[in-house]
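Re-run with default settings, no changes from the original entry. Doing this only to confirm the output is reproducible before filing.
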Amino acid sequence: MRILWHGVKGSIKTGYGAQTKLFTPRIRDAGHEIAINSRLDQYQTGVDSDGIINFASGSKWDMMGNDYVAVNYAHYEPDVVISMCDAFTCEPTIFDKFAWYPWVMIDSKPITWENLECLKACRRPIACTRDGEEQLRAAGFDPFYVPLAIDRSIYKPLDGDVRAEASKIVGVPIGERFFVVMNSANHSNPSRKNFASAFKAWAQFEKLYPDALLYVHAEAAGKMWHGEDLWKVKNLYGCKNIVFAPQYEYATGLIGSEHLALIYNAADVLLHTAKGEGFGLPIVEAQACGTPVIAPDFGAMREVNRTGIRCCGELRMTRSGSEQMLVDVERVAGALEAVCLQNGAHESRRAISDCVEQYDIRNVMKDNFLPMLDEIKHLEGIE
């Protein structure tokens, strides 16, 4: 089968870029032809490090790839288009001309009207969580289920003095301190990742445990992607022991998956306070490294948080007709204290890691993605 993959190219170190890097070479190696319609890459068409053609996205539509996808489609002549991005950013009057199978990141209840409108143009959507699959069925669709994936040859429990090595990235000694990691992209203002609740809970917690340290893997100034000024959020709540990722290295993509795996391994817990997640890759990555998670008891986060603490909160309408969860700050502060008091007495890192085995890319390809392609070939009448 000949596939045009519509998504962020694999060399860009974002969640979607990581998924492109994981899936596309394995699709090719399974015997399919594949090229990438590269979002966020305006003019340069070329071949990536995996030998896969990356078509330029064009300059309009905020570089979301809608501008050139029709001409790239006409040039490449694929059998199907599979998109790995926020489905609502795909222009339906363009994508309805293709045999389009989009992954849908459902981070609210019910599905946002923007997603529902654009999905009218697709053949069948792809849910990446069982919660999303259930919501799509309730909305009248017949979705596939293919979860997002991680590479457990990278995200795994590590041997050695991981805290000493992670201290070099964090910029301060970790030592025996209670060490918390937050890995959330600073992409909106106000933030869907809900830095405010995390920092407010942290301010309460560190009054009781003044030696604790929170490392935030994010761009702090909010200038890259119209995010929040996290320094101002930190100051608002009077937080003291918060350090941010090395900003130059973060912005230029020098901190990769291996660095993140090291930081997860050094952490006592991952703190994740998003109002909603389409999947929640950091939650799975951290657990694959053997680190438990504190996250809201809502949607995808409830599903992928297999080993940690789920915190309740208040459902609030964040887009017309759809709600997300604003997690309870007191419960988050209490969860941090509960993990701290365990003093490392939670399940072994290997046991935690094994809980997310199904999300390893090898298993996702074998159990979910390749069977989906076989069904798509049948639906499209492809020999």
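The CA atoms of residues 155 and 285 lie 6 Å apart. The mean pLDDT is 93.
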